Amino acid sequence: DTAVSQTPKYLVTQMGNDKSIKCEQNLGHDTMYWYKQDSKKFLKIMFSYNNKELIINETVPNRFSPKSPDKAHLNLHINSLELGDSAVYFCASSQTGYTGELFFGEGSRLTVL
Amino acid sequence: QKEVEQNSGPLSVPEGAIASLNCTYSDRGSQSFFWYRQYSGKSPELIMFIYSNGDKEDGRFTAQLNKASQYVSLLIRDSQPSDSATYLCAVNRDFGNEKLTFGTGTRLTIIP
Prior knowledge:
- Chain A has no helices and 11 strands.
- By secondary structure, chain A is mainly β.
- Chain A starts with a strand and ends with a strand.
- By secondary structure, chain B is mostly beta strands.
- The N and C termini of chain B lie far apart (36 Å).
């Protein structure tokens, strides 16, 4: 009964390919996020959606396209993958107005060869 | 200068001792401060948050905030081997989680 689940957990692919990661939360939260964690453990926000509306779009190449079909789902599609895209991508959710907590998914480790 | 700085460690502390983790931030407008714990290969999980200057205690954990010095710390009393993890400091300009800026984390090892 996972609160924030993302699939797949591992992706290994070649440069130039396109890949997608899916995320779902069953916590009833209104805000969902994509974070990228690089090999040095630096965790950086990429996107945030509140009730399906994009509210944060950090300096991310437009090869990355998030999509939120409803407030419980947030997907990430990456076109033309590059070596530097290799990282762990975390989906997270939170409830606006509440203090304290981002709930993270287990992460999706992307390796671009 | 990084927005949120932490000593990457590793920090080694004997079991039962106090572990002290430190974090400085550059944005004077920061309002909310968080400590997340991340076990190897796992996702971050919230340990504590603090908004006001001073200390905030929760069990074996104490968060300390000094906005004038732009400094936040986490103390872990009676350290246990299960506390061995990477501790991520995060700050936000607002009261909430909408745009957390994370540090690179301090790796803590508790030695039995």
